[in-house]
């Protein structure tokens, strides 16, 4: 059972961590210092192959290649085309997504993770009354999930950051990030702000659970080499403009898709003048333009941040790596595109509502609001989150609060503040930032995601209203579940100043507030401090896990067999081999078509989110949402499938379940770009769970196609896209040629023999993208089966 500090399992944790903190002058940096010598040596091999100047992003990526010669040789174009096989140095997972990743990891049968891994309990904490009560209540509500995560962490040697310790990205920046590092974080589909750690000059890339499991099991992680966009920063931010305004401005320029398949690499004199945490804010919101990640060359401010967070040995090693040219781009390196931004031209910017790329400079915001006919008011101001909870952010807003308090003002609307970590919370408290904010009406919430991820228990009617926040995302319903709430994104200082007015039209740079005396009052531009003069306070030592804890194989992972939220995964069985019912040898058994899906079918159509998220750790329960928003091309209905053998119809999960019950393996026919959207592994696990063995598509989204292969589903592409319409529900399909591919000819062509319901038989041609490794996964029944067999010496 998960317990608070001072009892049971947590007492052990507390004792361990107190011991660590007794001599806490510096962190143990063994596991958090990148192996610079090895990376630089590998980069030498890369240079021999590519023989051209490299961008910083390329240096970091390519120095983490498993085999540079295999990935980069041949004189072909790399960026935008080559598939890279990489070895990330670390994995970080948040509590919601970690559940299925750990269940999968457990089914691989390993005794510990191949790379240092951490779990962060941040997404499941509800915001309602304030930090202490919210934390206690949320621990009780999610007890079984936290118990599971903590026990699995102990068993496999994973660092466990318990509820209240902070938000994953802030913890990673404060504790694990290092210049030149490559790290995977496992994110919810709705949350891809891993790149926050790019503020320390590294590549941090958000991935789905299947990719995180790859890194945890030591399987090379595959990424299509991104294009690299150079963002040249000149000038200097002035007055009220902050790093947040830079990224809000850029989001307006690039739109939500402008960074897709690209790394944003900032360079130029404007980089060094930003604080490390300011760069993290910019990198964090690169996700809003769809960028793979963002990064910056190593700066003196990064070094200062590493020292302030007790990682001097990392700074020292980074200095040496920088002196060898590893932590910045080469002279003459070419970018796929260059964007020029003069920081001196930027003014505070407000983005939204409902999309982060609708960007309006604050000087034009009042007239924008008027032109839309919105009420000139907002109902809450929210600051903090992983995007903007640095010491600099908090001291800047405290400066405004102090100015307001001096003239007797308090905020006009509820004003909520979310510290990003225990370190930030404790330092704010010690330096009287918290009391200064509370003096003007702020409510300080738990160190967790809270309202940013929709964990905001808000008592308002479902009617149109506006909120101002320093968060990063503002899609409909994200914060309070109300689709009519308009979330406008701005810097913490703009949100704070506007909260004293309660009006959307208030421009704190030019407008005055009226004091009770009738006198006008105008804020002076706020100033903050990037690092605390007295150093960071670590706060409650029991929140900090021991670095690289030893796995404890005797620990039982806690899963209640009656749980509706967690369920152990049973390995999927292979279709091939003497122990199966398959009489077709190394070809798939005859498969019945469940349905032909029409048009767009994203991972959200395949495995819906919303209320289903609570079942992320329970494959049986979450599978009830399989394809429930997909359109059946035969009839055009949503969530309808036909069972021709039984002459019935039902929802898609109902018919899939009935196929599974009578041991009838099945296949899907799907349209273009099947599985686009977030890299949600459930979208591959669920069809496999119900008995899907093959999907034939007009085209696949690449990540989802790989996820299908990992779960042992054969993805095939129509050689002639017109064949899509020839196959329908109830038809039987059989592979011809798969045996050749599985038995040593990976490029063998695979045909499909189709037997229509009326008895007509014909063949169609298909293409596939299975590599030799992926064919091994298919033969074993899943990638995890293959790993387990290899470990047991059975392969
Ligand atoms: S604070 Fe918001 S953006 Fe950051 S990790 Fe939590 S939910 Fe994601």
TrEMBL record:
Residues 593-720 form the Aconitase A/isopropylmalate dehydratase small subunit swivel domain. The keyword Ribosomal protein does not apply. GO terms for cellular component: cytosol; mitochondrion. Binds 1 [4Fe-4S] cluster per subunit. The keyword Zinc does not apply. GO terms for molecular function: 4 iron, 4 sulfur cluster binding; aconitate hydratase activity; metal ion binding. Keywords: Iron, Iron-sulfur, Lyase, Metal-binding, Mitochondrion, Transit peptide. It is an enzyme of class 4 (lyase). Its EC number is 4.2.1.-. One of its GO terms (biological process) is tricarboxylic acid cycle. Its main location: mitochondrion. SUPFAM superfamilies: Aconitase iron-sulfur domain, LeuD/IlvD-like. This is Aconitate hydratase, mitochondrial. The lineage of its organism: Eukaryota, Fungi, Dikarya, Basidiomycota, Agaricomycotina. Residues 58-502 form the Aconitase/3-isopropylmalate dehydratase large subunit alpha/beta/alpha domain. Belongs to the aconitase/IPM isomerase family. It is found in: Mitochondrion.
């Amino acid at each position: 059972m998960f317990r608070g500090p001072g009892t049971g399992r947590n007492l052990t944790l507390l004792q361990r961590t107190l011991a660590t903190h007794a001599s806490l002058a510096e962190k143990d940096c063994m596991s958090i210092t990148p192996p610079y010598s090895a990376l630089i040596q590998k980069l030498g091999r890369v240079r021999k192959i590519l023989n051209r100047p490299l961008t910083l992003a390329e240096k970091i990526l390519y120095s983490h290649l498993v085999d540079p010669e295999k990935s980069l040789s041949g004189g072909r174009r790399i960026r935008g085309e080559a598939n890279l096989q990489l070895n990330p140095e670390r994995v970080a997972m948040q509590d919601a997504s970690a559940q299925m990743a750990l269940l999968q990891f457990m089914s691989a049968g390993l005794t510990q993770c191949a790379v240092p891994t951490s779990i962060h309990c941040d997404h499941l904490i509800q915001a309602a009354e304030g930090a202490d009560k919210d934390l206690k209540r949320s621990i009780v509500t999610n007890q079984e999930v936290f118990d599971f995560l903590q026990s699995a962490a102990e068993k496999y040697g994973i660092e466990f950051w318990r509820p209240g310790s902070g938000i994953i990205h802030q913890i990673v920046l404060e504790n694990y990030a290092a210049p030149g590092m490559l790290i995977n974080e496992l994110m919810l589909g709705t949350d891809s702000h891993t790149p926050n750690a790019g503020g320390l000059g590294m590549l941090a890339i958000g991935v789905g659970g299947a990719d995180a499991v790859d890194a945890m099991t030591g399987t090379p992680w595959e990424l299509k080499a991104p294009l690299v966009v150079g963002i040249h920063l000149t000038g200097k931010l002035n007055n009220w403009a902050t790093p947040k305004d830079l990224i809000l401005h850029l989001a307006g320029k690039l739109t939500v898709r402008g960074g897709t398949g690209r790394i944003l690499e900032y360079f130029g004199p404007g980089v060094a003048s930003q604080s490390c945490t300011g760069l993290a804010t910019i990198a964090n919101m690169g996700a809003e333009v769809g960028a793979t990640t963002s990064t910056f060359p190593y700066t003196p401010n990064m070094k200062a941040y590493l020292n302030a967070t007790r990682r001097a040995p990392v700074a020292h090693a980074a200095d040496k790596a920088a002196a060898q040219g590893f932590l910045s781009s080469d002279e003459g390196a070419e970018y796929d595109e260059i964007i020029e931004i003069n920081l001196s031209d930027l003014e505070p910017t407000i983005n939204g509502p409902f999309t982060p790329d609708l960007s309006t400079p604050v000087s034009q915001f009042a007239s924008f609001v008027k032109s839309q006919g919105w009420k000139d008011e907002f109902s809450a101001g929210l600051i903090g989150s992983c995007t903007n909870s640095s010491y600099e952010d908090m001291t800047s807003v405290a400066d405004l609060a102090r100015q307001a308090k001096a003239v007797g003002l308090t905020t006009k609307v509820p004003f909520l503040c979310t510290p990003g970590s225990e370190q930030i919370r404790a330092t704010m408290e010690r330096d009287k930032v918290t009391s200064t904010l509370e003096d003007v009406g702020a409510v300080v919430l738990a160190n967790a995601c809270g309202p940013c991820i929709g964990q905001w228990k808000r008592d308002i009617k479902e009617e149109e209203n506006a909120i101002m926040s320093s968060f990063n995302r503002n899609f409909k319903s994200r914060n309070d579940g109300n689709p009519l709430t308009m979330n406008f994104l701005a810097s913490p200082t703009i949100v704070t100043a506007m909260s004293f007015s309660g009006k959307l039209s208030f421009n704190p740079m030019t407008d005055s507030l009226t004091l009770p005396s009738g006198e006008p009052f105008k804020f002076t531009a706020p100033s903050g401090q990037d690092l605390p003069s007295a150093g960071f306070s670590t706060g409650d030592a029991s929140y900090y896990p021991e670095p690289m804890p030893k796995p404890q194989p005797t620990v039982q992972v806690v899963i209640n067999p009656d749980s509706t939220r967690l369920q152990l995964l049973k390995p999927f069985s292979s279709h091939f081999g003497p122990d199966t019912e398959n009489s077709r040898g190394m070809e798939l058994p005859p498969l019945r078509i469940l349905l032909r899906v029409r048009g767009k079918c994203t991972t959200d159509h395949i495995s819906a989110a919303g209320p289903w998220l609570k079942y992320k750790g329970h494959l049986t329960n979450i599978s009830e949402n399989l394809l429930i928003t997909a359109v059946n091309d035969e009839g055009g209905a949503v969530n309808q499938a036909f069972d021709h053998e039984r002459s019935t119809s039902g929802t898609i999960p109902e018919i899939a379940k009935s196929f599974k019950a009578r041991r009838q393996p099945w296949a899907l026919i799907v349209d273009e770009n099947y599985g686009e959207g977030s890299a949600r592994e459930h979208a591959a696990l669920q069809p496999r769970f119900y008995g899907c063995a093959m999907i034939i598509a007009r085209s696949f989204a690449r990540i989802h196609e790989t996820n299908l292969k990992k779960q042992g589903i054969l993805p095939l592409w129509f050689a002639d896209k017109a064949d899509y319409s020839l196959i329908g529900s109830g038809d039987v399909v059989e592979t011809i040629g798969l045996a050749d591919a599985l038995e040593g000819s990976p490029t063998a062509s695979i045909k499909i023999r189709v037997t229509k319901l009326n008895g007509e038989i014909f063949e169609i041609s298909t293409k596939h993208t299975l590599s030799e490794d992926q064919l091994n996964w298919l033969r074993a029944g899943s990638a995890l089966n293959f790993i387990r067999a290899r470990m047991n010496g059975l392969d």
